[in-house]
Amino acid sequence: MILVTGATGTVGREVARLLAPARPLRILTRRPELVTAQGPAVTVVRGGFTDPESLHRALTGVHAAFLVTNRVAEEDDARFIEAARACGVRHLVKLSAAAVEDPEADDLITRWQRESERTVRESGLAWTLLRPRSFMSNTLSWAPAIRSEGVVRALYGESANACVDPRDIAEVAVHALTQDGQEGRVHALSGPEAVTALEQTTVLSKVLGRPLRFEELGPERARSALLDRHPEAIAEALLHSAGRQQAGAKARVDSAVPAVLGRPARTFDTWAADHAQAFA
To answer: Rounded distance, CA 158 to CA 160, Å?
Structure first.
């Protein structure tokens, strides 16, 4: 039995979809109605990290678990791990982030991710860590402006990021959950090349068959836009992250995706073509 958390999110949804047809799968979620994975041995438990009873129901009989937490500065990883130990779980596959290995990354989000990793490492359970670069799907936030105005607005348009297709992250996660020899492994996951927002705009223009204009956001406009969606501490952490990207901290291409999957990592061109309808 494998448990997937985050199964209504970007990566967890794909992990559940890949596992569902062939393996006993349990999903823990606050929103069961949003679960799309279907298979002969899929069960859904309504609950969350702050509900001990639901954690116990979800984790009983589970061998390996895919752990996704996103409430910054909360102790959801510790709560999950305590329940996992009590229920006899053997292996955790934790979705983390590439920034944790960058000593220049000292923002609120990265400090929380480092603490989450430490909690996993010291859990007494077998573990595998996944450290992806930014998701290619983050560009979906551009979709409303592309549809209505034909414009992409972003900060630091010429800074490069070796962003990764979430489907590649999910495939590596499934490999870690189902194959031997993954205990104690750390997989740094990137796309096959570093791309800029300007280059992504060009790709999306070609895919959509229409001209798109790129509009550079200055730091203050970017801060204002982020504050419309996030608390101040999170907005400042994201701005710090963007500054690191501008300095070249996110341009490195890693080899884990082809090494684990035996094929090249998907390009942004491929991701964009497969998701064109979202921008149309």
So the answer is: 6
